[in-house]
Amino acid sequence: MNVFRLTGDLSHLAAIIILLLKIWKSRSCAGISGKSQILFAIVFTTRYLDLLTSFISLYNTCMKVIYIGCAYATVYLIYAKFRATYDGNHDSFRVEFLVVPVGGLSVLINHDFSPLEILWTFSIYLESVAILPQLFMISKTGEAETITTHYLFCLGLYRALYLFNWIWRFYFEGFFDMIAIVAGVVQTVLYCDFFYLYVTKGWFSRPYRL
Amino acid sequence: GLDINPKDEL
Fold it and tell me: What is the ipTM of this complex?
């Protein structure tokens, strides 16, 4: 464990909690892409199946359980409890254009052709594009609530910090996973436009406008 | 050599 990975995980946890609390407290999922949240639930489910097969550390296990629990709770709030506030018209990204190519790629390019490894690879590739429906929805509505921008900032920051974690681990531990690194770079690049606006627009004053 | 991924990351 290093400072980049720890702050990255905490940033990721913060994003997940921010979103869940925002929906729960405001009793509304307006402006939130349910499709992205479903994709994240799939990402965690396919990546954390090793919860059933291997124990790495209490921290690792706890975080995985929290991530999976919060992801499904968020999906439940959006599609069940507060479905009346779900803005389906603007959440119109065709996720099959993400899932099918990612599924195909994970079968073609992976470290090992075993079910668990292919599912892990699928989750790594899917996570790198899972935010697209949310960014697409914001571009369609033309704005985002301030709290949603903080959620996106923390979510984007987490994988950026992981990039530094991988540099650290390559230098100090000789650890190197090309699949995770390439997907992590793609994932972080997708946030660049948003990061620029988040930093330059000083959103604390008005809603995010493209 | 470079280790294979121990999958110890979240």
Answer: 0.88
